[in-house]
Amino acid sequence: MDHACNIAVARYKSDGRLDQTFGDGGITLVDIKGTDDMAHGMVLQPDGAIVLAGTAADKQAGVVHPFVARLDANGALDASFNENGVALMSEVDGAAQCVTVLSNGVIVTGGYVAVSDQDDPGQPVAHEVFAVMAHRPDGQVMSDFGRKGLLTIDLADEATATAAQPDGRIV
User: Which end of the chain is more exposed for a tag (fewer CB within 10 A), N or C?
Assistant: First the structure.
């Protein structure tokens, strides 16, 4: 049986009960692309908004795409963030594994992307490299960050954590 997996976000009260004012009975289901979606990272913004980072599967193409999504403090997708609350990097095969929000509101994700090995025909078609992606506070890709919002380092690894230093540098 083929089915889609959505992302579930729940908010609890300090006594462990679901917060009924959040989402639908304390839970919000997020559907990024209609297939298998996974959140790998989450961060709270000072205004109570929730930023998610993860992957959305494209089963027909056999790839996954990184995404950033923002929920408002009540658990609904934030319509003012990119398009319908989701910034999907559909031109990239890879994943956003972690997320940090800088003091200026810029959203930085770390993960991996698949790159082509066109220069070496003896190698597999693609390999994964360390990647950092940046989005403006409204969800738009920061085209002046790296190359069209994407910075890659040819390491046979992936970014699994990101942090912001007080001076705005990204670790």
Answer: N
Instruction: Report the C-alpha gap between 95 and 160 in whole angstroms.
Output: 10
The Cβ of residue 128 has, within 10 Å, a number of other Cβ atoms equal to 18
The pLDDT tens digits of the residues spanning 159-171 come to 788 888 888 888 8
Residues 6+ apart with CB under 8 A from 70: 45, 49, 50, 51, 52, 77, 78, 81, 85, 139
pTM: 0.87
Q: In 10 A of CB 139, how many CB atoms?
A: 21
Q: Which two tokens stand for residue 16?
A: 């462990």
Write the secondary structure of the chain as one string of H (helix), E (strand) and C (coil): CCCCCCEEEECECCCCCECCCCCECCEEEECCCCCCEEEEEEEECCCCCEEEEEEEEECCCCEEEEEEEEECCCCCECCCCCECCEEECCCCCEEEEEEEECCCCCEEEEEEEEEECCCCCCCCCEEEEEEEEEECCCCCECCCCCECCEEEECCCCCCCCCCECCCCCEC
- Choose among 135, 21, 3: nearest CA to 69: 135
Contact 105, 126 (CB under 8 A): no
